[in-house]
Specification:
two-stranded parallel sheet, 5 strands, alpha+beta, TolA/TonB C-terminal domain
């Protein structure tokens, strides 16, 4: 009888939890600790671009135009849909011209596509592929913000799509 009493305290002792397991007392809610929350980063204000087509000095106009194209190319990667939907001719490459109506406050009001100069004719590519390029260009151009002016302007910008 003495050996049985000696083993009793070992079986009644509380077990320590194993690493990686979750334990809680009966009737108590389980609170799972979460990591640190992501730091709040306020949205940056949009970059106000110059209306390069109104500048008289040609050297200054080229500099302002480069700034606009640099900002545009940051927002415009080659669309992945054009890669996925390409046929045996491969993804389209070339220049698509976009005509923008820039409002007096500097926002873009409408975007149309008057012409495109691709390496092959548009008929050589699936319509979905061309639509992907046009949508990507319209989306990127629609995010641009130009300096306010007294009246609305219309400008044509060519975008070179190279896969």
């Amino acid at each position: 009888m003495l050996p049985i009493l000696a083993l009793l305290p070992l079986s009644a002792r509380a077990q320590t939890p194993r690493p990686g397991s979750l334990h809680t007392a009966p009737g108590k809610p389980l609170h799972v600790q979460r990591g640190k929350p992501e730091p709040y980063i306020p949205a940056r204000p949009p970059v106000v671009l110059p209306r390069f087509w109104l500048t008289k000095d040609s050297a200054q106009q080229v500099g302002e135009m480069r700034r606009v194209y640099s900002q545009l190319m940051r927002k415009l990667p080659y669309p992945e849909d054009a890669y996925r939907q390409a046929n045996s001719n491969g993804p389209p490459s070339g220049i698509i011209s976009f005509r923008l109506v820039v409002a007096a406050d500097g926002s873009i009001h409408s975007i149309t596509i008057p012409e495109s100069q691709l390496t092959l004719t548009e008929a050589a590519y699936p319509p979905e592929t061309m639509q992907a390029l046009e949508n990507a260009g319209k989306s990127a151009l629609g995010k641009l913000l130009f300096a306010p002016s007294g009246k609305p302007d219309t400008v044509q910008i060519g975008v070179n799509f190279v896969p």
